[in-house]
Amino acid sequence: MTAGPQSFQSRFTGLFLNPADSRIYACIRIAFALVSLLNLMQIWPDREIFFTDVGMVDQEVVRKYTVGAYLSVFDLCHDVSAVSTYLLFSGCGMVLLLLGVWPRLAAGIVYVWYVSYAMRAPLILVGWDEVLRSTAFLVLISPMPACWSLRSRKARKKSPPELQVPCYGLTLMRVQLAVIYLQAVLARLDNEYWMGGDFMSFFLLSHNARWPGLWVLNYGFVLKVVTYLTLLIEVAIPFLLMVRRWRWFGFGAGILLHAGISLMSYNLMLFFLAMMTLYLSYLQPADMDWLQRRLPRPRAR
Questions:
Q1: Paired strand residues for 21
Q2: pTM of the predicted model as reported, rounded to 2 decimal places
């Protein structure tokens, strides 16, 4: 009578405490840090417009309409020199996270950066900002193994890298990825353009498309099929990734989906990279063995 509940409890606990390959966490840490640096580099040229008192958004207006507490380092940064200093400081945190040096502190710096600029300049936020902010929090609370990090020889001898760590961080990232897709589909169920199959046609006629033009009108039926196929793929991806024998179909579907979005849309490559960072949580130890065999090995002295 108690076997069922005990089995469910052990499986549920295993989703968070079963051992996971530390190299997967290291791979996610490196990928997330690189994408964050690219995002920072894209924001840098417009930092005065986005974050200073002479920019396009008055901080007092933002504070007035913020729901809840206004928590932003930019509350202390009012001119371009202060803003530039904070962006450089955040960039240093991303580099430290990339190298695995003081990774918990570095992840905290990066998370505060994402929260701060989301609070200060909500008008500039796009899809990948939300993805990267949630990923920053998950990286912050996940295990921080010393695998694939730049540490001194003395530190490596004192505490050798862990081979296995708890899997709760990977589980939360997988849940986050599934929520993104399922929430996106649910939000479109009452949208007449998506439900009518006309979204892709209207999108490719807009300024957001890479090649807008009247050529779209010649492919109305094809674009209607693509609209419905996109919804189907977004529903299918989380389920494909959850089944180990089908997960490479999920990887392939996700890569094709986001590569297609990046190809046909203007300036959405960062969204592709941000989503692929979460996909890395579905890697398995065999995948990391394959990758490590192909990485250059340091020569022994």
A1: 164
A2: 0.90
